[in-house]
Amino acid sequence: MAAATPHSPPPPQLSSPFLEYIRAPGGLDKVVLRGRRSCSVEIRLFGGQVTSWKNDHGEELLFVSSKAIKPPKPFRGGIPICFPQGNLEQHGFARNRLWAIDDNPPPLPVNPAIKAFVDLILKPSEDDLKMWPHSFEFRLRIALGAGGDLSLTSRIRNTNTDGRPFSYTFAFHTYFSVSDISEVRVEGLETMDYLDNMKGKERFTEQGDAIVFESEVDKVYLAAPSKVAIIDHDMRRTFVVTKEGLPDAVVWNPWDKKAKAMQDFGDSEYKHMLCVEPAAVEKPISLKPGEEWKGRLGLSAVPSSYCSGQLDPLKVLHG
Ligand SMILES: O=P(O)(O)OC[C@H]1O[C@@H](O)[C@H](O)[C@@H](O)[C@@H]1O
């Protein structure tokens, strides 16, 4: 496994006032993207994981557990990358490897207004290849937009030289910070079909209006729309989640019993988080050698002054 080494190489020279490289022991080096006012994003090289996203008032928008543990364990919170999944460790190994800064990524069309972004890369180690015998290049661009929105673009290329295709499932396991889960509703997934992970992945159709939370939820919504809204009444804030190349959306909250059973999660923390995870779960993605797949996650937080209690979710979703 490509674990963090105690003697890391010198920090890369990031030639932008919008980026900072912060050295930390134990594989905890991070890159910080800075936007207008107090907007920022922190990315840990271990896991290629976003661990913080703050709005222009400096308020944290992502949930990170106070019990999150350090590498080589996966980090509970932020945006873990789940890849490649299958008969491997839960959620794949990408969230549990040391990524590198990609100094020379292949071109990716970028909005010229976006100044703060970083490109990371993960390639399998010898040990990874023993576990999952496929060669790949996984490029991840993390960008902080002018308005404080965050986007993650994944590009995965099959670099097998033996002509073999490979397939995988994928998720951006996004942990949102919410004021009180009982006051949150999710718009955009009503009437969708889902697989219920709590009922042996049986298929159901969502009934009723928006999704609200009263107990443990672990569902994979199939062919979910490209925009989903998480409406937090108490915070008067709506997260708008957009996705491309990722047909499904996992919705997860462990609730009290499971929370207590999780070593890296506080007993009551389930009240203040919700995972909505753009994903490709039902139908694995297949890549032939030389082929590349692209998936994108976009996040924005609509502030209360905009909502002022009058939020029309249809406008957020379709307007
Ligand atoms: O503990 P992990 O591996 O980070 O997974 C947390 C949860 O992640 C969700 O995506 C899964 O649907 C749940 O089944 C799982 O419990």
From TrEMBL:
GO terms for molecular function: carbohydrate binding; glucose-6-phosphate 1-epimerase activity. Substrate binds at residues 76, 90, 95. InterPro entries: Aldose_1/G6P_1-epimerase, G6P_1-epimerase, Gal_mutarotase_sf_dom, GH-type_carb-bd. CDD domains: D-hex-6-P-epi_like. The active site is at 173, 277. Pfam families: Aldose_epim. This is glucose-6-phosphate 1-epimerase. It comes from Triticum aestivum (Wheat).
